Amino acid sequence: xxxxxQRAGRAVRNxxxxxxxxxxxxPWVLDIPLSNTGLDWSDPDQPNVLxxxxxxxxxxxxxxxxxxxxxxxxxxxxFIARYVDDQTESGRRN
Length: 94
Hints:
- There is one protein chain.
- The protein has one domain (about 1-10, about 30-45, about 50-90).
- The chain has about 90 residues and is an all-alpha fold.
- The longest helix has 8 residues, at about 1-10.
- The protein has helices at about 1-10, 60, 65-70, 75-85, 90.
- It is globular and about 45 Å long.
- The two termini are about 20 Å apart.
- The model has no long low-confidence stretch (mean pLDDT about 85).
């Protein structure tokens, strides 16, 4: 998730310009029911399936926060602010 946030922030840094962050995801991400992957904000990077094993698949290792981020129907800036626990006014601004 932190890598995703870094990449999104690099879309554009000049306040006089507009930027676009595009994230491409594998189709299986859209098939995992979010109801099975509750997001615990005290540990958002928790893997999708616990316990992990040496042979766990990419789908099982993917963090719950990443799944919820990709499938979010709300403001992603607000999601990121909650993820990094940014409680400032500018962090919650839409």
